[in-house]
Amino acid sequence: MARERVLNAQGKDRGGQESEPKSPKRKLDTPEENPEEKKMRIMEAKPTANISLPPEILSKVLSNTLHSETRCALDLLVPDWQICEPHDPLPANTLDPTRVVTYTRGTKGKFGSLLTSLEHEGDDHIFLPLKSFDDRTLAINKFCRDEVFRACLLEGTQIFELAADDLPQNVAEESFLKDPEDAFPIRGKRPRAILPYDDELPGTEKRTMPSGSPFLFKLLRHIVVRSPLTLLNVNARSMVGRGVQIDNANLEALDWMIDLDRGSPIWVSWSQMPMLESVLLDLRIYSHDLNTQRKCIGKEEIIRRAQEMGRWLQLKLLVIAGLKSYSFDTSYETYSGELIEEVDEIDGEPNWIKIFSPALRPGGRLILVDKLTDRTTKFFFLNR
Fold first, then answer.
1. How far is residue 370's CA from residue 353's CA, in Å, rounded to a whole number?
2. In sequence order, which residues have a C-beta less than 8 Å from that of residue 352 and are 6 or more positions away?
3. Which of 183, 223, 213 is nearest to 315 (CA)?
4. First-residue to last-residue Cα distance in the chain
């Protein structure tokens, strides 16, 4: 009977006899693996590491991913005035000068300084930051999405432009006669959705962060509220359309609301935004002929709103366009920083520097930018 042969560790059978060595099994021929593919296979086989950064570090990393650029405040506020383009010294251009008056509030009880210029180039530019983000960063997770939005609002300048883009669907009905207090036909969808206004109904809905809080306006630091010159040509009939049948009373009500809405920039609720550092306001309607005809905004209204700004804001920069433009042209050549803080009127008009300066922090700048003419005016005024 054949005995079963079992090999021990020394390669001998139980009888102590040497066994014949077995030939090793040959590996089947396989195509050689690409080194890069092998590396990827090994990496994919490893468990994914759960790397967690502290929120404050991750916030800083995300902030650094934002695309950053700077633009001059005057170009952001009144791009249709083309102030930042190279100055043309030709004689014809003397009929259309730009005047930039810069008041810097004094520090430690000292008087401020005043500078007037008819040019704006080189070192005259006042740069503000603009921020934008890569949409891919929003898809990482909710925290990253919130932090990217937060960084853009905190660090970048947000531009809000008046626009005739919010007309109700029932415009042919008596909608403007029914709810006139809640109609803002040229304030613009984006400004209305984000900025708080003191002339809105209480509880008006505003946009919040993706996570649900806070309101976006709570994070704003630098804002521009501008009104393009093309908006001066907008009236009720042009908004409704020539072919739309509309009651005359409703059309007149819409015209009235458009006129009131032209002063929207000063109606921002400053008490809800005391964290602001830079505010740029387009008030060109005030000195324009259209305001003389339609009584859109009065000097007393601007003064009251300026006082409201002074109660709540301590700005590094306040730029206002149009308070001394067109027929309201005024010379500041005889005024010093000390005198401008004392007089109440200049050439029969309010001293806007004195009126708005309480909204500045010590060392803060108030800049008034004006033009004698632009493409909306029908006649020219000689330079005084």
1. 14
2. 306, 320, 323, 324, 368
3. 223
4. 133
Sorted by where each begins, the domain ranges of the chain are: 55-371
% residues pLDDT > 70 (the chain): 73
Q: Which amino acid would we find at residue 224?
A: V
Task: Count how many residues are written for the chain.
Answer: 384
Buried b (16+ CB within 10 A) or exposed e, 174-203: ebbeeeeeebbbbbbebbbebbbbeebeee
Summarize pLDDT for 307-321 with one digit per residue, the tens.
999 999 999 999 999
d(CA 206, CA 222): 18
Of 156, 105, 94, 104, the C-alpha closest to 127 is 156
Contact (Cβ atoms closer than 8 angstroms) between residue 289 and residue 262:
no
- Return the pLDDT at 137: 65
Residue ranges of the chain whose pLDDT lies below 70? 1-65, 87-96, 134-141, 143, 170, 172-175, 179-181, 378-384
Digit-coded pLDDT (tens) for 229-248: 999 999 999 988 888 888 88
- Can you give the pLDDT at residue 25? 47
Query: Is residue 278 packed enough to be buried (19+ CB in 10 Å), middle (13-18) or exposed (0-12)?
Result: buried
Instruction: Write out the DSSP string of 47-80.
Output: PPP-----HHHHHHHHHHTSEEEEEEHHHHH-GG
Q: Is 233 exposed, middle or buried (0-12, 13-18, 19+ CB in 10 A)?
A: exposed
